[in-house]
Amino acid sequence: MSSVGQGTKGSSQARPANNGNVVKRLQSELMTLMMSPTPGISAFPSDTDITQWNATLAGPTATPYENLTFKLTLSYPSNYPYAPPEVLFKTPIYHPNVDMSGRICLDILKPAGQGKEGAWSAVLNTGSVLLSIQSLLGEPNNASPLNGEAALLWDRDQTEYKKKVLARHQEPAEMEANAA
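Below the sequence we write its predicted structure tokens.
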């Protein structure tokens, strides 16, 4: 007979990297996303680890990303929500604030106190992060680019920029077919 707290499923002893508060917070965020969905944004945890999520973003209208779909991953640290999740684009994307590895330069994805740009706050959540990334697609921060070529082209030639976006983009179904 086991006593309370000896490694029961979901306890912090059974899952040392995922303390109970992180799990509860992520379960609450999942319920919010399911009960009050935001058009063009969805996110769900993996089947095996609630701290690893997959998300889908629709490109915002009236931008070079309109009618495109993007897959992202979110990885939540053990001290979430006091530290931001790591968010990566899995769909190849051409954007001033996203590098070729899918890393995103966005102030809210940096811990507060990490230089003047760290703007993460524990009041932010998965939905607000994804909404901010979706907004970034149409309003890049060209003063802080990860892709300098994209930043220059964004300012100079939107027609050529859109060509580069379409050349780099793969729909999620295409990505899965190519991986098989």
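The CA atoms of residues 76 and 85 lie 4 Å apart.
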